[in-house]
Design brief:
Layout lengths: L1 H17 L4 E6 L2 E5 L1 H13 L7 E2 L20 H4 L8 H7 L5 H13 L8 H18 L5 E6 L7 E6 L8 E8 L16 H21 L6 E7 L7 H12 L3 E7 L12 E4 L5 H15 L3 E4 L8 H6 L4 E2 L1 E2 L22 H19 L3
The structure holds ligand BES and zinc ion (ZN).
The site of ligand BES has 19 residues, from helix 2 and helix 7.
Length: about 375
């Protein structure tokens, strides 16, 4: 009997200590399994070794949320679909702000972020690096009273950061969202290995900071509200962005458009941007192509991820229109990501500045009600 009791207690201890650590991982629509942290890391490594980005959602905290992504492109064209052909009206303003883009600023943001030992969502430097991002937004706000910077807390250590330029007038309740993930990973990061994540995704955060600085200093006051979001825990299964997108949905926030910046400074052999065409909104993607042709003047080609490979997918899943412009063709992306070798010396800031142009055009065109 004593043996039975101690056996029961031992099993109890194992269950109690491991069960809370298991996460519910969705690897394809409707395909879910409970996985340990080690299994999740293996999954991610395996996907990338196969030369594809697959992506997965950690849906543990959102089990009952419906997947609204199939709403994409279905139904009678309403104002949301007409966005594809929306007239472009901001040429003059954009011409004035483009010369403000500083490749030096891009470099120094990426340098600071990739100098943290890691930006892992559970680590102290993951927390410190998000705080640094928040401090930069605050510095660039220059005390403007229509700008707020808030930290968004999750069920893990690292917070997301939301910097907001308030809209004015009748369209102020509509939001335009520019985002990128703040966290980094590397095989073995849990065991204390470095995860510089210079391209994935200090580059995207540098894009957001530089765009925000220029808009703030230009004095432009948008008609719609512009949210800049540095998401926590993307690498852990889009956890930060799912929390935020589901929260916006629950609160009924009117989000007109979302753009994701994730890997923006490594140039592939072919000089084109890759426009992710799955898990995005087709109408908004058409609009993005027009911005590239009209203002950025950089070639693009459509690419596919296969599944939700970055935070844009969290917004799509929550029923909002999102797009994801990427550094290269799918076969030519930075081979050093998710390793200690994802460092700044492999990146090209002049190339990266095209994404700042795109971000400025996206914010100013969609933030203005013509
Ligand atoms: N930056 C990558 C996404 C990416 C990599 C897009 C290569 C296109 C080409 C992102 O940080 C990432 O690593 N995503 C994971 C999925 C995520 C849900 C853990 C991936 O692609 O496996
Ligand atoms: Zn990544």
């Amino acid at each position: 009997m004593l043996i039975l009791i101690s056996l029961w207690m031992a099993v109890g201890t194992v269950l109690a200590s491991s069960a809370p650590d298991l996460r519910l991982i969705e690897t394809a629509p409707g395909v879910r399994s409970w996985m340990s942290e080690v299994q999740i890391e293996e999954l991610s490594t395996r996907i990338h070794k196969e030369g594809r980005c697959g992506g997965f959602f950690d849906v543990t905290d959102h089990v009952d949320e419906p997947d609204l992504s199939e709403l994409l492109g279905i139904g009678i064209p309403g104002p949301r679909e007409i966005i594809a052909e929306r007239p472009l009206t901001q040429a003059n303003r954009l011409e004035r702000v483009f010369p403000e883009i500083s490749t030096q600023n891009l470099y120094s943001s990426i340098k600071t972020l990739s100098d943290f030992p890691d930006r892992y969502f559970k680590s102290s430097s993951g927390v410190a690096s998000s705080n640094w991002i928040s401090d930069q937004f605050t510095r660039f706000a220059h005390g403007r009273t229509d700008i707020t910077v808030e930290t968004y807390k999750h069920a893990f250590a690292q917070s997301s950061v939301i910097a907001r330029i308030a809209g004015r007038g009748p369209n102020a309740a509509e939001h335009i969202i520019l985002g990128g993930h703040a966290d980094s990973t590397s095989n073995g990061v849990g065991a204390g290995r470095r995860a510089p994540g210079a391209d994935d995704n200090a580059s995207g955060i540098a894009t957001l900071l530089e765009t925000f600085r220029i808009l703030s200093e230009s004095g432009w006051q948008p008609d719609r509200t512009i949210d800049f979001i540095a998401y926590a825990a993307e690498e852990a299964g889009l956890r930060g962005s799912q929390d935020i997108a589901q929260d916006y949905k629950r609160r009924g926030v009117d989000v007109l458009a979302v753009i994701q910046f994730d890997m923006t400074a490594f140039m592939g052999k072919t000089p084109v941007m890759g426009l992710v065409s799955d898990n995005v909104n087709p109408g908004l993607n058409t609009f993005q192509k027009r911005l590239l042709d009209t203002y950025v003047k950089y070639s693009w080609r459509e690419i596919r991820c296969g599944y939700g490979c970055s935070d844009h997918a969290s917004w799509t899943r929550a029923g909002f229109a999102s797009v994801f412009p990427f550094e290269s063709l799918f076969e030519e992306y930075n081979p050093s990501i998710h390793s200690e070798a994802d460092t700044i010396d492999k990146l090209n800031m002049a190339f990266g500045s095209h994404f700042v142009k795109l971000a400025l055009a996206f914010a100013m065109e969609l933030g203005t009600e013509p």
